[in-house]
Amino acid sequence: xxxxxxxxxxxxxxxxxxxxxxxxxxxxxxxxxxxxxxxxxxxxxxxxxxxxxxxxxxxxxxxxxxxxxxxxxxxxxxxxxxxxxxxxxxxxxxxxxxxxxxxxxxxxxxxxxxxxxxxxxxxxxxxxxxxxxxxxxxxxxxxxxxxxxxxxxxxxxxxxx
Length: 161
Prior knowledge:
Helices cover about 75% and strands about 5% of the residues. It is mainly alpha-helical. The chain has a single domain (about 1-150), classed as Up-down Bundle (Methane Monooxygenase Hydroxylase, Chain G, domain 1). A two-stranded antiparallel ribbon has the order 1-2. The chain is elongated.
């Protein structure tokens, strides 16, 4: 059962690596404003998310089996599991644990960068829409002398894009 658990955790680590690669590709597509690539990458991310959820369920079920067979109460995490297995398995589990933790940190960093790119893009869109909406409806403002004047925004658009 332990070997099966190690195999499942290894497959989870591989899914996380693939997800990280997809996030990096997503970042490139965001910078290039490549909508088609973004759609494809998002679809692949969904597939990896489903795969990760299935592996997580399998791992949880197997951990429950191991707890029942070994009469373990409470949580069974990798640290506790390391005490139950031989040195070879403990080394493999330890490497997988460290790999998954490192991948998780990298995934969080890239996700945060992608969120920042998306938010900046939304801000630019909002500002552009705001400027466009003022073209036919200039705002009234007060001049230095206190009299009201009309403030009209000049907007230039590149229609070639």
